[in-house]
Amino acid sequence: MTATTIKLDSALRDRLNAESRERGVPVGSFVEELLEAWLREQRFARLRDEMARTDPTERAAHAAEDAAWDATAADGLGDTGDDARS
Fold first, then answer.
1. How large is the average pLDDT for residues 34-61?
2. Sign of torsion, CA 40 41 47 50?
3. 2, 4, 20, 53: most buried by Cβ count inside 10 Å?
4. What pLDDT score was predicted for residue 85?
5. Kind and range of the H or E run holding 71
6. Burial class (CB in 10 A: 0-12, 13-18, 19+), 6
7. Could you tell me the sign of the dihedral formed by the alpha carbons of 41, 45, 50, 52, in that order?
8. Binning pLDDT at 50, 70 and 90, where does residue 28 land?
């Protein structure tokens, strides 16, 4: 891995260093964790936006399908690990 230098306000640098020390990880790893968390949140934000823009008819069809699957999950089959043929 190639290291690089980034310019940060000294207060921010100190906060990053303190948090990384508290977690017991190098500051680079902590920054990577922060970036990954931020990217994940961005993906979920896009997903929430797409879901909000879903046509209400399509959303109702998905809800009906989900309900049908939930009903099959509640049928009790397989709860004891037994095969339905038992």
1. 96
2. negative
3. 20
4. 56
5. helix 56-73
6. exposed
7. positive
8. very high
Q: What is the largest CA-CA distance in the chain?
A: 69
Closest CA to 16 of 37, 41, 3, 8: 8
Q: What is the mean pLDDT of the chain?
A: 90
Question: Are 31 and 16 contacting, i.e. CB atoms less than 8 angstroms apart?
Answer: yes
The token pair at 60 is 């109702």
CB 15 within 8 A of CB 27: no
| Residue 33 CB partners (closer than 8 Å, separation 6+) | 25
Phi, psi dihedrals of residue 55, rounded to the nearest 5°:
-55, 135
